[in-house]
Specification:
This protein has 2 helices and 20 strands. It has a 5-stranded antiparallel sheet with strand order 6-7-4-9-11, with no helix packed on it. It is mainly beta. 34% of the residues are buried. The radius of gyration is 24 Å and the shape is elongated. Keywords: Signal.
């Protein structure tokens, strides 16, 4: 089943290698867990950092080895992933998930006497807590869902009876959505890029991902803008940007991480100055509803810099 390739958690690769043409079954991985969260904010980038601490209750029957944070459609910047030692992080923009899995072993050839893959040496034992699960996003905090999974031994389907059991018992699935413990937590929620609010017909030609008028930065300033927010035809080569009157167009480079053109301005190394700053931008595009009428979207953003 192709969906197992999306899990990429500890033990799965060994399972697929051993039974490449079959499916792996798992026991109940949806045992109760606890998840604490807190958020911080970087005033130089306007990125929110989402921190999580995972706890495996003392009465748990197995180590915890998986944490999944669900993301809503529209959360378009997720970056700077961090994981505890022995854990790996997997981000899927298509699935809208950030997943951490305990994958490390002190002995890379570890196996149980019956040939099964044991829990990772870094999985969270009953009664333990583990921090350092985190990532950054421009999107602000809101209410969402996380899913945890405990370790369960793997074994291969043996025939039609096992296939029927898999279909009838979600606990045999390895997917967190089918066989995981759900918790309410804080996650990034979708926000709206700022269009400048000047000319509604062309405002979408250039929008700002992490700054609005009268915003403030501290120390330095990361600014990200995007083109053709509503799918308009925009001539990217015509884009211009001026910071405090100085041409900074070349400072903005495309960033796959930020899904737009990004530039970081620092005191003494750019036109950025302490106190009030003004960024002016422009770009040409085809007016929606026409085939060849070209117009210019111009925006003015004022922001404060605190040294």
């Amino acid at each position: 089943m192709n969906h197992f390739k999306l899990i990429a958690a500890r033990g799965l690769l060994a399972c697929l290698a051993a039974v490449a043409a079959t499916t792996c079954l798992a026991g109940n991985r949806a045992q109760p867990s606890l998840l604490a969260d807190h958020q911080s904010y970087a005033s130089a980038t306007h990125l929110h950092t989402y921190h999580y601490t995972l706890t495996n209750p003392a009465g748990s029957a197995a180590p915890l080895d998986t944490l999944v944070v669900k993301l809503e459609p529209g959360v378009d910047v997720v970056t700077n992933f961090r994981a505890p030692p022995g854990w790996r992080v997997f981000y899927s923009s298509e699935k809208g998930t950030v997943m951490w899995a305990a994958t490390g072993y002190i002995d890379p050839n570890a196996e149980t006497p019956d040939g099964d893959i044991p829990p990772s040496d870094y999985a969270l034992a009953p009664g333990g807590s583990l921090a350092d699960f985190s990532f950054d996003s421009f999107s602000p905090p809101g209410t969402g869902v996380a899913i945890t999974q405990n370790y369960a031994p793997l074994y291969a389907l043996q025939g039609d009876e096992d296939q029927e059991a898999l279909e009838a018992n979600p606990e045999f699935s390895r997917l967190p959505e089918d066989n995981g413990y759900r918790l309410a937590t804080v996650v990034p929620v979708p926000d709206t890029d700022w269009s400048g609010n000047r000319r509604p017909s062309v405002d979408g030609f250039l929008v700002f991902a992490n700054v609005q008028d009268k915003a403030s930065f501290q120390g330095s300033a990361l600014i990200v803008f995007r083109l053709a927010s509503a799918g308009e035809t925009v001539h990217a080569a015509t884009r211009k940007a001026y910071l405090n009157g100085a041409d900074v167009t070349a400072n903005f480079a495309w960033s796959d991480v930020y899904k737009g053109y990004a530039a970081t301005f620092a005191l003494g190394a750019s036109p950025l100055k302490a106190g009030s700053n003004v960024l002016r931008t422009s770009v040409d595009g085809v007016v929606p509803g026409t085939t060849d009428r070209v117009a210019t979207d111009t925006d003015r953003v004022s922001f404060e810099l605190v040294p």
